[in-house]
């Protein structure tokens, strides 16, 4: 049952919190030509995965009854505290997320940290491996997650499902092998179920995959403990650049039950060069550059 809320209150909060958020904290370049200190409407729309027109209607109070998914995306994009997030939900006539369920709230400090590492692909996942935050380099490497329906932005569905998540995922090969990587994701889900037994969406995800994927069901039966994530080397097959060999690290966010996934490469390596190409081109129309000669490397080092 939804709580009472006012569309005008929701619109006013959106405008006020958009004006409050520094573009630099959200990962945007600040120039002297910017007239207002806060985010532009198109920037917030980009961060939340919404159209600018729909965001305009929300801020003007003309669009009513936003879904919980939209309110959650706006709360993350605006870098709200938990109390502010709950206030935004109530102003939209919705009940805030319950305690004891998988949280999709990304603390503002984590978003600011990730935004300052904008040269690296970074994605933030919840305890059930749903992608809830990513930067432009993540989109350049893996494709824009915003084009995939929100429920499908889940790594377990990408690995074991038959929906858009699987079709949208680029070919990723782990040096540990596909079976070990899949097993670690299932082990994480088993651990999440033990900690969030009342979460209906998590229960639905597990039931769905156990019923449709023999591989998931096999791992679910055999995996007995949560995986310890360590550095892994992965090859990502990019449609424009080709194979990119990168180090993948999973960083656990204490107190938030989130996983920050980062991809890096050693300075001067082929992977580093391809990441730089992705940063410059956004992954669109890029071609693999020829290897740098010794003279070129010396020039770049100066």
From TrEMBL:
CDD domains: HTH_XRE
Entries under SUPFAM superfamilies matching the protein: lambda repressor-like DNA-binding domains (SSF47413)
Domain HTH cro/C1-type as annotated: residue spans: 34-85
Record InterPro entries: Cro/C1-type_HTH, Lambda_DNA-bd_dom_sf, MLTR_LBD
SMART domains for this protein: HTH_XRE (SM00530)
Region (Disordered): 282-302
UniProt cross-references to PROSITE patterns, sorted A to Z: HTH_CROC1 (PS50943)
Molecular function, one GO term: DNA binding
Name of protein: Helix-turn-helix domain-containing protein
Species the sequence originates in: Streptomyces spongiae
Highest classification ranks of the organism: Bacteria, Bacillati, Actinomycetota, Actinomycetes, Kitasatosporales
């Amino acid at each position: 049952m939804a709580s009472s809320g006012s569309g005008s209150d929701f619109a006013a909060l959106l405008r006020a919190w958009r004006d409050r958020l520094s573009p630099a904290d959200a990962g945007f370049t600040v120039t002297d030509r910017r007239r207002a200190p806060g985010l532009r409407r198109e920037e917030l729309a980009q961060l939340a995965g919404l159209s600018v027109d729909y965001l305009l209607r929300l801020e003007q109070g003309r669009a009513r009854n936003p879904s919980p998914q939209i309110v959650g995306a706006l709360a993350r994009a605006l870098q709200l505290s938990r109390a502010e997030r709950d206030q935004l939900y109530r102003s939209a006539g919705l009940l805030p997320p319950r305690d004891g369920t998988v949280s999709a709230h990304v603390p503002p400090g984590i978003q600011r940290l990730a935004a300052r590492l904008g040269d690296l692909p970074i994605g933030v996942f919840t305890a059930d491996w749903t992608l809830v935050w990513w930067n432009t380099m993540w989109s350049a490497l893996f494709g824009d997650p915003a084009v995939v329906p929100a429920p499908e932005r889940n790594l377990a569905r990408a690995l074991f499902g038959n929906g858009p998540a699987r079709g949208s995922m680029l070919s990723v090969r782990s040096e540990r092998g596909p079976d070990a990587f899949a097993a670690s994701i299932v082990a994480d889900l088993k651990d999440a179920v033990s900690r969030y037994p009342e979460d209906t969406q998590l229960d639905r995800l597990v039931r769905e995959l156990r019923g449709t994927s023999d591989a998931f069901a096999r791992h679910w039966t055999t995996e007995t403990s949560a995986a310890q994530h360590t550095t892994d080397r992965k090859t990502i097959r990019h449609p424009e650049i080709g194979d990119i060999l990168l180090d993948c690290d999973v960083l656990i966010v204490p107190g938030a039950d989130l996983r920050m996934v980062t991809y890096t490469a050693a300075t001067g390596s082929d992977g580093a060069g391809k990441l730089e190409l992705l940063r410059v081109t956004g992954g669109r129309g890029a071609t693999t550059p020829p290897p740098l000669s010794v003279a070129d490397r010396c020039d770049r080092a100066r």
